[in-house]
Specification:
alpha/beta, 171 residues, UDP N-Acetylglucosamine Acyltransferase, domain 1
């Protein structure tokens, strides 16, 4: 019976993941599908086309308000062979947290046990392997800080204003 429930849960998660991946509704239907899978998502989220959020443990992903995830992004909350006790103990879970006003560019990969700070932005094609401080622009593989943000990119921010308020990081 336990195995049957596990398979049913997996089938539900993968069905909703596939619907969210390709159906329209970046600010509505896709967000609803991922919430139904167990992802914690705040208000005004936007999830682009072909985004993959961890298929086995979507409840290990948390997003704040005004989070924007662009197309072909992958967020991985775990790697295989997770011990059974980790599945039950919330404080020991490997998680991914996207705080409020986070912008994730296209083609980004976010690995487990990462927090992306409030207002941070991740440039296209980056691989996030460690925590990102608030109001920081990162890029590359692995993602490294390139600028401090004056305003967050997520939400209804004017792109010209965003660019004008960038302050390059010292290398």
């Amino acid at each position: 019976m336990k195995r049957l429930r596990r398979y049913a849960r997996g089938l539900k998660n993968r069905t909703l993941q596939n619907l969210a991946q390709f159906m329209p509704g970046a600010g509505s239907f896709r967000v609803w599908c991922h919430r139904m899978r167990g992802v914690t998502i705040g208000k005004n989220a936007w999830i682009g086309y072909d985004v993959v959020l961890d298929t086995e443990f979507p409840d290990w992903i948390s997003m704040g308000d005004n989070v924007e995830i662009n197309m072909r992004t992958t967020i991985i909350a775990h790697f295989r062979n997770i011990p059974l006790q980790l599945k039950a103990a919330k404080e020991d879970r490997v998680t991914v947290t996207l705080e409020d006003n986070v912008f994730i560019g296209p083609g980004v990969i976010v690995l487990p046990n990462v927090t992306i700070g409030q207002g941070a932005a991740v440039a296209a094609g980056s691989v996030v392997t460690k925590n990102i401080p608030p109001m920081t622009l990162v890029q590359g593989n692995p993602a490294a800080p390139v600028a401090k943000l004056g305003v967050p990119l997520a939400g209804n921010v004017d792109y010209k204003e965003f660019l004008q308020k960038l302050k390059p990081c010292k290398r």
